[in-house]
Each structure stands twice: as C-alpha cells, then as structure tokens.
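User: Here's a protein and a ligand (s-citryldethia Coenzyme A). What would the complex look like?
Assistant: Let me lay out the input and then the predicted complex.
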Amino acid sequence: MNPTKSASVGNSETPAGARRDTLSIVDNRTGRQYEIPVKNDTIRPIDLRQIKVHESDFGMMSYDPAFANTASCASKITYIDGDKGILRYRGYSIEELAEKSSYPETAYLILHGELPTSEQLKEWNYHITHHTFIHESIKKFLDGFHYDAHPMGMLISTIAALSTFYPDAKDIFNPDSRRKQTYRLIGKMPTVAAFAYRHCLGMPFVYPDNDLSYCGNFLNMLFRTTELQYRPNPTLERALDVLFILHADHEQNCSSTAMRGVGSSHVDPYSATAAATAALYGPLHGGANEAVLRMLVEIGSVNNVPAYVKSVKAGEKLLMGFGHRVYKNYDPRAKIVKRVAYEVFDVMGRNPLIDIALECERIALEDEYFVSRRLYPNVDFYTGLIYQSMGFPVTMFPVLFAIPRTSGWIAQWQEMLLDHEQKISRPRQVYLGYDLRSYVPLDHRS
Ligand code: SDX
C-alpha cells in the first residue's frame, strides 16, 4: 500500500489530547477558524468552499495549474515514489516485472489487479491473439493518408474510427462489452501501428500471424517481406517485450488524465483512447523519444555536447529525455532501458548516437543547472536509440509508446468508470477577465 498516511476523518470532538485528522485554518481576512478533514494526507477542496468573507461569496477554491499538487483520483493501479525512483504495477516492482514477466502478463496484471494463473493467461493470450485483425475497410482509410503522414496522426484517427465499427462499445457499464473492447484495443493497436508503418513505406500490409507472440507478431507485421513465415529475432522480440512492460502504465500522466477526462463524459473507449493517444503524441510526453533522437542527430558529435548544453542552460532549448514531473531521481525505467539497449546493440550493432547520449547524461548529472532542478534521464532518453537500432524510423517511436500504454489507459478508464466518487470532469476557473461591458457598434470601434 502507498505509505501515505491513511486515517479515518477526525473531528474537533475527538477526546482532548488525541490526534485530530483535521487542518485548522484561520482566515485572517475575517478571523474565523475552520476545521478541514484530512484523509490520506489530502484535503478535499470542496471543504474550502465554506471559507468566505461575505455570505454571498462563492467560497474558496484551490488553484493548481497543471495539477502540480492535486490528486484527481484515488487509484490502486500504479505507485510511483519520485524521490526514491520507485515504480510498481499493482504492488509488483518494475524491475521484477521487466525481468520475469511478459507484456501480455503485465497487461493482465494492470487490468485485473492480480497476476494471471496459467489458465487465465492462456485464455487472455487467446482472446488478444484472436482480435488482432482489423476490418478490411480500415485499409482503405489508411490508404487515404499521404506516404509521409506521421504514423501517430494515422494511429489517432484510426483508433477513433474503430468506434464506428464497434457501436456496442458504447455499452460502457456492461463488463462483457468492456472486456471485448479491451481485447480489441490491445489486440488491434499493433496491427494498426504496423499497417501505418507499411503504408509509409509503400509496402503491402502483413496480416497477423497467430502462431507468434504479441511482440513477435508485431515484428512480423512490420518487417516480414517474402518469407513464408516470419521468424522474429528472439533478442529483439524480448527487448520489445521488456520495453512494452516498462511503458504499460504510469499513473496519472498527461495521457491517462486525458483518458479519464474524456472517458468521464461516458464516450466509448475507442474515442477516449484516441484522445489519450493524441495527448501522448506531444514532445513533452510520449513524443519525447522522437525528440531525443532528433536532438542527438542535431548535436551530431560528442564534441558538440557542451555547446548544446550551454544553449539548454541559456533557456533556449530543452534537453529532451530529461526531467519529469514526478521523478526527481533517476527514472527506474531508464536504467532498465539502458541495459536493454546494449543487448540490442549486440545483435544489431552499436548505435553511434549512444556516445552522444552518454556524454549528455555525464554532463547533466554533474552540472548544477540540472542537479539543482533534479533533472535526470527519463524513460524516453534511451528508448529511441534502441528503436532506431531495431530499424524503426523516428516517427514510429511515439507509436511504440502508445501500443503498450493502451493497457494502462484502459485500466485507468475502467477504474474511473467504477469509482463511485467520480463523475464528469468539469474543473472550475479563476476568472480574471472583463466585468460586464456593453456592445460597441462597428463604426464606434477604434
Ligand atoms: C513522459 O508524467 C509521466 O509519468 C510521463 C511519462 C509516462 O510514463 O507517462 O513518464 C512519460 O512523458 C516522460 C517525460 C518526457 N518528456 C521529456 O523528456 C521532455 C523534456 N522534459 C521537460 O519538458 C520536463 O522535464 C517535463 C515536461 C517532463 C516535466 O516538466 P515539469 O515537471 O512541468 O517541470 P518544469 O517544466 O516546471 O521544469 C522545472 C525546471 C524549469 O526550469 P526553471 O523555470 O525552474 O528555471 O526545470 C527545467 C524547466 O525549464 N527543465 C528543463 C527540462 N525539464 C525541465 N530544462 C532543460 N531540459 C529539460 N528537459
């Protein structure tokens, strides 16, 4: 369990001397005192509304742009301790899962809350495998994109289009329907991603091979050419499996927040997943792995790193792949990615950009600018080097993030739907605009 203090809500009638789980607030504008309940080390901002200067006031709110210190939900899926560099899915450490689990098994854990029995895993793999095909009409949809369309744009729009093929997905409170859409989304994401990639190359689509693993089949749909059956390289297949485990969920990140927010309007899960994928596309989020590679290519050589770092410290650029809202220590995933990188390089040859990346990391970990801001490599810093070595174009990197994160998004969406405290997301605002003013006729405007 999270080591955050969880306590029953205290009250001012608690016996003298006993600890009261409340916050005593004095409003110095009026001298009034308020007792605000504390639970799980949090207060409910709605309890601040009683704080007013005048009876007619709306009452106090909390103001937290970008939710820097606001819990939007209660969750049991993923636990992160940013100071200690801890990441756990349903209580299991990312290090153990990356070493001992597979992505399908980890996806099952994230979605169901427990590791599957062998029978449950067999059934789970069966259903995912038998939902990898997509409707033939979607090929026509994909053919409409330019050859140089960004695969994330293709993925986002195609996931949204899937909602038109499965109208039963609107039945969001029917567990059987949610289960079916879960199979479809997890099963079809690699297919849509691979078809988008093949479209950009002008190569024929490769259909799923149900005899291969989840990652082996994905590699098959991406890279098969004329061989009768594609045989994935086991090192690359396992590397992708580990990377998918690392990317499966990450609690209330930007894209999960989008999934929960859009899903809270009770739209179908395909439309919500399209919104989450769009959020992930941004270079500050999942698009960072693509931005890292472009940055390393721009730097060009180890000798140019100091000049680039200087421009970062001057506030002209970001050191992509560094920093994190939660991790103020080394992202535990980045450590594992770095190890996987060398395993891939052993098969595919050393990626020369690794030397530039290592020099960026060496300088950043010593330089006061980065140390004072607690900027460490995050999950995106080294992944791009692996993907490039595996033969992926940089535009596919965020797609490779979206595929495994689909299981996390669905788990977050389902937890939101079943949480009786949740309802449609509708934040308030601090209004700083004009007060009432009258319309000005066109010929009277300066
Ligand atoms: C992911 O949330 C998640 O969990 C996301 C993720 C997941 O699994 O879902 O972990 C995946 O998105 C990882 C992050 C990938 N993004 C990048 O690598 C892009 C580069 N990083 C930055 O954009 C930034 O670090 C963020 C967006 C990741 C975090 O931003 P914050 O928490 O809002 O931090 P901030 O912008 O307030 O920065 C604090 C200071 C600022 O300097 P000052 O204004 O105090 O002088 O640190 C500086 C920032 O300018 N800073 C950086 C920097 N990141 C922050 N300076 C240079 N390079 C950077 N990368």
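Summary: Confidence is low (pLDDT under 50) at residues 1-12.
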